[in-house]
Each structure stands twice: as C-alpha cells, then as structure tokens.
Amino acid sequence: MRISKEHDVRRNEILDKAESLFEVKGYNKTTVNDILREVNIAKGTFYYYFKSKEEVLDAVIDRYLEIALERAEDVKKRTDLAPAEKLIQVILGLRMGEPNSGVIEELHSPENALMHQKSIAGVVLRLTPIMKEIVNEGIATGDFTTPFPEETIKIMLTAGFTLTDEGMFSFTQEERQRLIQALFYSFETLLGAKKGSFDIGFERIN
Amino acid sequence: MRISKEHDVRRNEILDKAESLFEVKGYNKTTVNDILREVNIAKGTFYYYFKSKEEVLDAVIDRYLEIALERAEDVKKRTDLAPAEKLIQVILGLRMGEPNSGVIEELHSPENALMHQKSIAGVVLRLTPIMKEIVNEGIATGDFTTPFPEETIKIMLTAGFTLTDEGMFSFTQEERQRLIQALFYSFETLLGAKKGSFDIGFERIN
DNA sequence: AATTTCAGACCGACCGTCGGTCTATTTATT
DNA sequence: AATAAATAGACCGACGGTCGGTCTGAAATT
C-alpha cells in the first residue's frame, strides 16, 4: 500500500522520528532501517528526501538551533532585563545537558560523539553573534568590562556545553550544581560584571 | 610467509600504524583493513591483540595521555617555576590543536568526532588532578584565589581543547593568536592570579 | 469528457564495504 | 611430545547507499 504525502509533511515526519530515535538509541546505533520502519516508508523514499544519514542529523540539529536562535533573539530584544539577566536566559534556553529537552545529549558517548560535536560547533557559530550583541550592550552600559568579549562567549559556551554533557562526564547532583555555579561565576568574572549578577537560584536549573 | 613477534612489539606496531592512519585519514575513514595492510598482518592477528577497532583508538589515546601525564608530573615537581608558569608549561605540553604533534586533531570533524571526544574526556579526567595540585600550591603561596579551583581547570581544558581544534573551527593566524591570548587571560583571571602572570610570548605557541 | 503526458512521491531488490568471527595452522615454550 | 601463543585468511551479517522502475493525480491536449 502506497501513501503519498506533501513534501514538507513527509520530510518532517522523517525528521521527527529520526530525532526521537537519535535520543533513545543514539545516532550511531540508529539504523536507516530503524527510521524506515518507524516512518513506514521504503529506503528509496528516505534517500529521496535526504542524501545520507548524516544529512538527517544535520537537519535535526539545524531545527534545534533554529529554535534556540529564535528564543535568543527574543530575549535580546527585551527591555525589562539587564544584560547579565539576558545572558542567563539565553544560556538556560539552551537547556544544556538536560535529558529529554532538546535534541542533544543522551546515552553514552561513543554513540553520540558526532551529534555532540556538531551541536557544539553549531551553537558556538550561530549563537555567538547574538550573545556578542548582548555583551556589547553590557559594555556600553558599563555593566561589563572585558578585553575579549567574543572569545569569552565562545569559551563559556564550549565549556558549558561539554562539561554538562552526561554522556561524557558523570556527576552527582551536588557536583552538577556546583559546576553550574562555577560556570556562571566564571562568566561573570570574565565579563567583569558586578559580583552576584550571574547568581541563579537552584530552582532554575532543575 | 609468517612472521612471529614478541607480544608488545607487535602490539606497538599496530598502535603506531593505526595512530598515523588516524591522523592522516581520520578515525572513521580508517578501515581495519587499512591497518592490516600497513602492518602487514591478517585480520585474525589484529583481533588477537585488540577486540575492536574502537579499542585501538582507546589505546592510542591512552598512550598519548600517558606521555602528557608524565610531562605534567615532571613540571609539577620543578621548584624553579612559579605555579602560573607551571600551568602554562603543562598546557603547552598538550600541544592542543597543533597538527602532527600528538595524536589528536586532524582533518574535518565528522571523521574524528569520536577521537576528539575521547581525548577531551581523557585529558579532563586525568589531567585535572595534577593541575589541581599545582593550583593548590598557588593558593597556598597566595598567587591564586578562586572559589572553584577544580571547575576552573575543567572549564579551561575543555574550552582550550575544543576551540583550538582545527577540525571543528577554522581561524586565521591572527584569530588563533588572539584566541590563545584570551584563553590564558581567562585562566589568569579565573584563578585570580597577578595580571600578566599568564602572558606568553608568541614564539611559544608557534 | 476522454485521453495523454508529466512530475514528483514512492518502492524494494540489490550492491559494496566494513567490522568482526571462526577455525586451522604454524611457531615458541616446557 | 605436548601445550600454549601467535598468525592466517576465508567467511559472515549488518549496514549505508544505489538504481531502475512504479504509482498517482493534475495539467495539457484532443
């Protein structure tokens, strides 16, 4: 039996199922055949929409990044938040290392190394410009002072993204909270922000 | 024709050739058959020494880490260096992101994602304890002040390792130098060290 | 209104490659 | 001679990807 659908509908079906499979079994262990079974299509159909399994991964990550970027843009525009608070919001919006939230980070490392790497690269490349504008605001208002605004952002994004990845490092609840505290404290320090301006309550990270 | 060798000799032969293949073609694209051809052994021999291709990768990385750790221990012991200078030495000893130096970082990302991830995890896990001792020295002498010594080390290691990976990000010569400056500046700042104590001459990074 | 044409969605058999297994055989050790 | 260690390479199954072709609905032609 043959079911024909609109291009974008089918494409998104594939993306949705692939995404959840990647989350559950990891990218490596997810077979193209797994995806076919889930979406109920034939091999040919899959390769009609994507030219490789990796391209599906790219598309999945892209979709996630698009959402994150939009959220970040919204936060940037707000006038009721101080620059520091905006940065906190943007970072929390990434929901780094939190299972079942976005696309990223499940299971043990070998399965998801590629997904992890592509995610970091994407986040750093695309989120840095927006965050840089926020930091510049902060510099203009005198909230921040730093000789390396852009580099500071990149450092904090990579470190945060990698260290909170449960597939790479494991920690107790306390270690995790302490790490997150340290990350925000470091951001604050490197930006030369007022002490305490990057403090977040525990409720916000769990 | 059949050539028999001592266990460790053969094992290291495999490791050596695998390592250079990983560097040249990347881990993913390097076939077990490639390794066999290079070492001139049969499949059975390979799997007599290693139970999987991934185990070879682990062994290669482990060898690299062993060397880095030894260097770090040596630096730690020295009495002619200030803590800050010791940390610089340890980090430069990693030769992060430098092609053809250690095992790590060649080519484009997808091929080496796993290698990269395992390297970071290994470096962070095994190097942090040693660097922590050095930082503690610095705290004792009053050179450093920080509420998060261990976390600071981890942040700087992951950021440095990832951002200088030419397989993930590309930069011009100037961008690269500026990034490295920023990394050392950040380390200095987060450790609360005296300004300029982490300054390095350009000669030392090229 | 009936028929032809066309494009794009879809199908699944097939292929080459690759990591890994199995068992036989040779070499070293005692 | 017996045993263990090392080597060999034919073989296997799974996987990503290809290819030739089919189905369907809508536009164009008659």
Quick tags:
homodimer; mainly alpha; Tetracycline Repressor, domain 2; DNA-binding
Q: Could you characterize the architecture of this molecule?
A:
Two copies of one chain form a homodimer. With 206 residues, the first copy, chain A, is an all-alpha fold. The first copy, chain A, has one domain: Tetracycline Repressor, domain 2 (Orthogonal Bundle). Helix content of chain A is 67%, strand content 0%. The first copy, chain A, is built from eight helices and no strands. Chain A has helices spanning 7-25, 32-39, 43-49, 53-77, 83-94, 109-141, 149-163, 173-190. In chain A, 41% of the residues are buried. Chain A binds chain B through residues 54, 109-110, 113-114, 116-118, 120-121, 124-125, 147-148, 151-152, 154-156, 158-159, 162-163, 168-169, 178-179, 181-183, 185-186, 189-190, and chain B through 54, 109-110, 113-114, 116-118, 120-121, 124-125, 147-148, 151-152, 154-156, 158-159, 162-163, 168-169, 178-179, 181-183, 185-186, 189-190. The first copy, chain A, binds a DNA duplex (30 and 30 nucleotides) through helix 3.
Helical region count of chain A?
8
The number of domains of chain A: 1
Percent in helix of chain A? 55-70%
Oligomeric status: homodimer
From the spread of the alpha carbons, the general shape of chain A counts as elongated
Largest sheet of chain A: none
Q: In the CATH hierarchy, what is the superfamily of chain A?
A: Tetracycline Repressor, domain 2
Q: Biggest interface and its residues per chain? A: A-B, 34 and 34 residues
- Point out poorly predicted stretches of chain A: 100-106
Note the gap between the termini of chain A. 47 Å
| Gyration radius of chain A, in Å | 19 Å
Count every beta strand of chain A, where a strand is a DSSP E run of 2 or more residues: 0
Order of helices and strands of chain A: HHHHHHHH
